[in-house]
Amino acid sequence: MTALATTTDPTDAYPGYLTCLADADEHGAVDVALGLLDAGVAPERVLLDLVAPAQSEVGERWARNEWSVAQEHAATHISERVVAAVAQHANTRPTGGRVVVACMDGEWHALPPRLVAEVLRLRGWQVTFLGASVPAAHLVSYLHRHDAQAVALACALPMRLPHAHRMIEACRRSDVPVVVGGRGFGADGRWAARLGAAWAPDAPSASELIADERALRRVPAAQLSHLADDEYASLVRRRGELIDSALTDLRDRMPAALSYTPAQLDSTISDLGHIVDSLAAALYVDDASLFTEFVQWLVEILTSRGVPADAVDLTLAHYATALRDFPRAARTLRLSRAGLPTAGPGAVH
Ligand code: B12
């Protein structure tokens, strides 16, 4: 068990809280959070300055292969318990309109919007939290039946942006103003602007934006005229074929891949799919940096797990050949390969 926090600064309580997550000490973590509340710290600060950065650190440890998926799941579960305990302790009664908070279809990162939902609640909004992966049609029919002042949509993965756009458009058609957020829209929200959606970097800004309905509705239209070249749609149509051929190519050129365990094979197929999906998302928003950043991230993840960057380059080279008649995709793949640690003459086998 961890001693109760006596500090009034969440930053001071942070190391102890992180130790609780590392030790899967659920009660200790709740005690740290409630200790801060008892010491007079605002619940919003506990959520945003303790729980949120700790979750980001959980992600970094998983990415560096220091923590297993099981440790990440255990820590995330504890964070969810802490959020619930803080919300119950605060027990705010709503004074404002209804805000529906949901994850985009296919998006399982429910904790970030849960934090947003609780902060909105603390600020007086009547919040309905729909959680992870809400299908667009179900969200729209929900909005029709409940009189929502706004809907807040979360996306943590840039590769889900084309789906996010369809969801944003579906909400718009029901005339409910939309605010989006989450790391999927880019650190500065630039891909939200490309999709014509109002973006908030964090929960307090989302609350302010929702209070100003005119600002929420006054968003420049989506800039997607580049989609007329059909590259995005063609890539989506060819997704299965590209993954299959990339796997065959990988097995031909990297003999180690022939003796992969079923679990390794599964995660390789999943990575090959993520590469295609991220490339498709980059074409959708017409920004190569979405894909180059993804490739850098993937190389870090794989190298920390003993897979060489060359394996990623093999696949990028394969996709580059398969998509040579697609100018935007070819350029994006070229840029991403140039940024690889193995880039340079002789780097591509
Ligand atoms: C927990 C977790 C999971 C859990 C989610 C459980 C849950 N209940 O949420 C599970 C296990 C499901 C998961 C799955 C995956 N995950 Co994950 N996950 C995380 C982790 C560790 C924590 C997420 C979190 O709570 N962050 C803390 C919040 C508070 O931070 P935040 O997202 O920046 O949110 C703030 C703002 O962005 C903003 N905000 C966020 N959402 C919204 C919404 C609105 C409307 C507004 C206004 C603002 C807003 O406010 C927040 C508070 O300030 C992150 C690491 C990280 N750094 O976030 C990875 C992370 C997001 N996951 C990642 C990945 C890759 C995946 C998987 C693809 C892994 C896999 N191979 O299967 C899958 C994808 C599943 C899917 N389709 O959605 C990567 C994404 C990398 C990338 N560049 O795309 C990350 C960054 C991990 C990493 N370091 O590499 N994950």
UniProtKB/TrEMBL annotation:
The keyword Metal-binding applies. Pfam families: B12-binding (PF02310), B12-binding_2 (PF02607). GO terms for biological process: homocysteine metabolic process; tetrahydrofolate metabolic process. SUPFAM superfamilies: Cobalamin (vitamin B12)-binding domain. Keywords: Cobalt, Metal-binding. GO terms for molecular function: cobalamin binding; metal ion binding; methionine synthase activity. InterPro entries: Cbl-bd_cap, Cobalamin-bd, Cobalamin-bd_sf, Met_Synthase/Corrinoid, Meth_synthase_dom. The keyword ATP-binding does not apply. It comes from the Bacteria. GO terms for cellular component: cytosol. Residues 96-226 form the B12-binding domain. This is Cobalamin-dependent protein. It comes from Micromonospora profundi. The lineage of its organism: Bacteria, Bacillati, Actinomycetota, Actinomycetes, Micromonosporales.
